């Protein structure tokens, strides 16, 4: 069957970030505000920076790298925006219900992704590999390096006072307190 629509000849698509654009169809163009493009690029860049830092640390512990998940990114971003609006740092119901693991961070300034990951990972100094288990003082670290976790999502939002809230979500969730799980999933760094 031959395509006969004179206004829209056979499509020739290009992929631009997350929008398919027809190069031939003579329709009014969709104008995307430049500020939205910058925000989306910044969000993607921030998520990739946090992911890279996670994977650099995970490599030190001999565990597989994480991959960014669009669904987790979306949920993390929405929750970061909620935290920035309420300016209360508390875990989400998704995390409390075990649907995902979750790390949160707050700072009075615009936090670079590597700095956030470095702060979470710094809890390693309080973790006992000889007596493994959950501790509120090491939960960010153990979530980052949890061997069985495969995917993550990242969101960041600014509050009206300029402070920033960061949410990282993990699937499957780590910090499972069943017997033997910490020994199997939180491995000491390789020499």
Fold and architecture overview:
It is a lipid-anchor. Belongs to the CRISP family. Homodimer. Interacts with CAV1. It comes from Bubo bubo (Eurasian eagle-owl). This is Golgi-associated plant pathogenesis-related protein 1. The chain contains 6 helices and 6 strands, in the order E-E-H-E-H-H-E-H-H-E-E-H. The chain has 191 residues and is α+β, with helices and mostly antiparallel strands. The chain has one domain: CAP (Pathogenesis-related Protein p14a, 3-Layer(aba) Sandwich), CATH 3.40.33. A 4-stranded mixed sheet has the order 3-5-6-4. A hairpin with a 2-residue loop joins strand 1 and strand 2. It is globular, with a radius of gyration of 21 Å. About 18% of the residues have low confidence.
Output the strand order for the largest sheet.
Answer: 3-5-6-4
CATH topology: Pathogenesis-related Protein p14a
Q: Calculate Rg over CA atoms.
A: 21 Å
Any idea how many domains? 1
- Stretches where pLDDT is under 50 for at least 5 consecutive residues are 5-38
For the largest beta-sheet, the strand count, sense and barrel status come to: 4 strands, mixed
Order of helices and strands: EEHEHHEHHEEH
Family: Belongs to the CRISP family.
Domain SCP: 45-178
Main location: Golgi
Subcellular location: Golgi apparatus membrane
């Amino acid at each position: 069957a031959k395509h006969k629509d004179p206004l829209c000849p056979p499509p020739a698509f290009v992929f631009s970030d997350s929008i398919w654009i027809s190069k031939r169809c003579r329709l009014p163009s969709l104008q995307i505000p430049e500020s939205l493009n910058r925000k989306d690029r910044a969000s993607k860049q921030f998520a990739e920076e946090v992911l890279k830092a996670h994977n650099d640390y995970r490599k030190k512990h001999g565990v597989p790298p994480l991959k960014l998940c669009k669904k987790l990114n979306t949920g993390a971003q929405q929750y970061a925006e909620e935290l920035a609006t309420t300016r209360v740092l508390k875990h989400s119901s998704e995390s409390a219900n075990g649907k995902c693991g979750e790390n949160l961070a707050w700072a009075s300034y615009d936090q670079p992704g590597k700095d956030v990951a470095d702060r979470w990972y710094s809890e390693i100094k309080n973790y006992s590999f000889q007596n493994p288990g959950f501790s509120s003082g090491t939960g960010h670290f153990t979530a980052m390096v949890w061997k069985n976790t495969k995917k993550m999502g990242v969101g960041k939002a600014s509050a009206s006072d300029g402070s920033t809230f960061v949410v990282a979500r993990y699937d499957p969730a780590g910090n499972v307190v069943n017997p033997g799980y910490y020994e199997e999933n939180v491995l000491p760094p390789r020499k």
